[in-house]
Specification:
By secondary structure, this protein is mainly β. It has four domains: 55 residues, no CATH class; 68 residues, no CATH class; 103 residues, no CATH class; 128 residues, Head decoration protein D (Virus Head Decoration Protein, Chain: A). The protein has three helices and 29 strands. The strands form six sheets. Strands 20, 21, 22, 23, 24, 25, 26, 27, 28 and 29 form a ten-stranded mixed β-sheet that branches. A hairpin with a 6-residue loop joins strand 26 and strand 27. The protein is rod-shaped and about 185 Å long. 17% of the residues are buried.
Length: 488
């Protein structure tokens, strides 16, 4: 049986204990408890100076003793003072080549002088250009891991690669060099951002967001933008819809507002616009107008357009403000415009159709003429004039009202003469007629009359040159009827 401490008031079996003795036992017990925080073996009290505030100084208990804690639960930070207690930890780390734990708490792997809490070094002899990874992170499936490698770009410029490895092998995931170039999917980035393969880019959801000017016309960084459904009052290309998407390619000189912008409205027709801004102002919108490129609906182009290649149009073409839709019944479509000018031959596979109905040629006139006048060549051949004698053999034709085809109209081929008139040589044309030789019936041949500029019925045995055939009856003195011109 282990030794026990002596009683405060010794007694033997059967002895009577008095009240004052019982009180004495309690008083002494309470005095011992009050005088000492703990008791040791055999009832020996612990030294008072071994008990500190919230701590026990083991050296005061037994300077030569060793203490073992079998189970220690620490609810706060565990602090170890001094370096002797770290000897075994350092010894374990020293067994790994290149590992170092300093008294300041820095850990180095591959270096004896770490300059950070954790420093991993390849000592520049094994890790450059991917010969050996500086760090490898292995997933639960050991076939998959991430290597951090280093490489040399050029003198004074090094980089670091993050290379994931899986079942299909190793791929360059991310590269960053000391020049600030970032590569994605490429080992040696050649620009601030160098992406190998496709890229999905984000966008600014609103031009009114923090740090953005809130206006398409103000300085923007290169990127993708939208006006967030709140219609802007500034340089939007299409103000008919509150949504507009914008792509910006910004000039490197941020002291000006040079940008290339491509904008698209979110309306049903998806109108597409572009503009190149060259404003030197950062605060005032001195920008060029938007140019419309294409839509799936109606489209308006501003400015001159020059196309150097072939153009294929699947629909009709309208110019000079004319609709491309067919106006003439039976027209199959094509070009609807005002004038067509060609520098060479005009060729038609099938036919050329006109609204006017005669073939005319420009001739110089020797006097004032009116549409419908019958004209003859002048005696000297210097022009045409009104016929003034019946059955005139020099009769040429009728002044055309609206020629269907006009010859001699190219001002580059001859100098236009004042008073030049189109003379109908063939076809249907209105003509001045008179009853000098009796009433005119449809189908009658006509010849020059004595009344200047008029034609009359030729009669049964005409002499001279007949110029036309009447296409309508005429019973008056003078008038205008349609005739079919031909010379015989």
């Amino acid at each position: 049986m282990a030794d026990r401490p002596a009683p405060y008031v010794p007694r033997t079996a059967g002895d009577i204990i008095r009240a004052d003795e019982w009180n004495e036992v309690q008083v002494r017990a309470r005095e011992d408890i009050a005088a000492h925080d703990h008791t040791g073996g055999f009832g020996a009290p612990l030294p008072r100076d071994a008990i500190q505030n919230k701590a026990i100084d083991g050296s005061k208990l037994d300077p030569d003793g060793k203490y073992t804690v079998k189970d220690l639960t620490v609810s706060g930070p565990l602090k170890v003072t001094g370096t002797t207690q770290l000897a075994e930890i350092r010894a374990v780390l020293a067994s790994f080549t290149g590992a170092k734990l300093t008294t300041s708490g820095d850990v180095g792997v591959g270096t004896a002088t770490p300059t950070a809490r954790l420093e991993v070094s390849t000592e520049n002899s094994r890790g450059w250009d991917g010969n050996k990874s500086s760090l490898r992170i292995v997933s639960p499936d050991t076939r998959y891991f991430l290597d951090v490698k280093s490489f040399v770009v050029a003198s004074g410029n090094v980089g670091y690669q993050f290379s994931p490895t899986g079942e299909t092998g190793t791929a360059t995931g991310l590269s960053l060099d000391t020049n600030g170039n970032l590569g994605i999917g490429i080992a040696r980035p050649g620009a601030r951002l160098d992406v190998e393969g496709g890229a999905l880019l984000g966008y600014a959801s609103s031009l009114n967001a923090t740090g953005l000017p809130g206006d398409f016309g103000m300085p923007l960084k290169s990127g993708f933008y939208q006006n967030g459904g709140a219609e802007l009052t500034g340089d939007v290309p299409d103000g008919t819809h509150p949504w507009t998407h914008l792509i910006v390619c910004r000039h490197s000189n941020t002291a000006n507002n040079h940008q290339l912008q491509i904008g698209a409205s979110y309306a049903e027709n998806d109108r597409l616009f572009f503009r190149k801004m060259a404003s030197g102002s950062l605060t005032v919108a001195q920008n060029s107008a938007w140019n419309e490129l294409a839509t799936r609906g109606a489209n308006t182009f501003a400015g001159n357009q020059v196309i150097t290649g072939d153009v294929t149009i699947s629909g009709n073409l309208g110019t000079r403000g004319y609709s491309p839709k067919a106006r003439q019944a039976g027209w199959g479509g094509g070009i609807h415009t005002w004038d067509i000018e060609a520098e060479a031959t005009i060729w038609a596979r099938n036919a050329i159709q006109t609204g006017a109905r005669d073939l005319a040629e420009n001739f110089a006139t020797l006097g004032a003429l009116e549409p419908g006048d019958v004209v003859s060549l002048s005696a000297d051949g210097g022009g045409v004039e009104r016929c003034r004698q019946p059955h005139d053999p020099l009769v040429l034709g009728v002044v055309s009202t609206e020629p269907g085809m006009l010859l001699g109209a190219d001002a580059l081929q001859h100098e236009r003469i004042a008073g030049e008139q189109p003379i109908a040589l063939a076809g249907r044309v209105p003509c001045k007629v008179c009853a000098e030789n009796g009433p005119i019936r449809k189908g009658n041949l006509l010849v020059p009359a004595s009344l200047p500029g008029h034609a009359m019925r030729a009669g049964d045995n005409p002499t001279g040159c007949t110029i036309r055939k009447a296409l309508a009856d005429f019973d008056g003195d003078t008038g205008l009827i349609d005739v079919f011109v031909f010379l015989r």
